[in-house]
Design brief:
alpha/beta; 13 helices; 6 strands; 4-stranded parallel beta sheet; two-stranded parallel ribbon
Length: 226
């Protein structure tokens, strides 16, 4: 989970490799990953120079991460990627989240009592805080969310993305969010726009059935005036 694409995005760190790191290199906490060297990987079976170098570089690259991805990577109960993003946008920094009170977390959009309590309990746990300090101590740098433009024509509009775009889906989501919009994973009657790329999936059919407005990348840029 910590290494997954939506979290720290450590390419090459498969479940099989993680099991080897646990049994051979005694990696038991996420922060232990950042203490491993290229030479450590070379001691493992089937790890040649190129594979060891690639994994070392991928781990190093993951040190610079958006706050919401780091929050998601921590594995807080019931906190998915969207909720992590909403919490990050609400508080703006890890320090503010750590100090947040229950009612403040509960005020985040779509956060109910269970998630709010999970967040509070997580950041009240001494071992969790120690692990976070270790991660920051080994060089993990958090990028706080940028200011959002709520004067944009798409502010508060709900988008769903389907198909292949000119940029990655994550980049497009960031673009929409920066202009005040919201991005959901599934089409519903509350969806304002389906952003359509090449080779769309079933979301396209559902959007048509629900009468959701379907737009292209260029139409999105035109709406924003970008």
């Amino acid at each position: 989970h910590f290494a997954s694409r939506d979290a720290m995005n450590i390419d090459g760190l498969s479940e099989k490799t993680i099991k080897v790191l646990i049994s051979i290199l005694h990696v038991h906490h996420p922060s232990d990953l950042y203490l491993l060297s290229h030479e450590d990987f070379l001691t493992l079976e089937k790890f040649k120079d190129k594979k060891a170098k690639n994994l070392s570089q991928s781990i190093e690259k993951s040190k610079n991460v958006e706050l919401f991805r780091f929050l998601y990577a921590l594995g807080i109960g019931e906190v998915g990627i969207k909720t992590a993003r909403d919490i990050a946008n609400k508080f703006g920094s890890l320090q503010a989240i750590e100090k947040a009170k229950y009612r403040e977390v509960l005020s985040v959009k779509d956060v109910g009592p269970i998630i709010a309590r999970n967040v509070i309990d997580f950041f009240r746990d001494k071992e969790n805080l120690q692990e976070i300090e270790k991660l920051l101590g080994v060089g993990v740098v958090l990028k706080n969310p940028p200011a959002r433009d709520f004067s944009s024509p798409i502010a508060h509009k709900k988008f769903v993305i389907t198909g292949m775009l000119s940029v990655s889906r994550n980049q497009m989501s960031e673009y929409i969010i920066a202009h005040g919009g919201e991005v959901a994973s599934s089409v519903s009657p509350k969806t304002d726009f389906l952003l359509l790329g090449q080779d769309p999936g079933s979301k396209f059919d559902r959007a048509k059935a629900l009468g959701v407005a379907i737009i292209s990348e260029q139409e999105l840029h035109n709406m924003i005036g970008d």
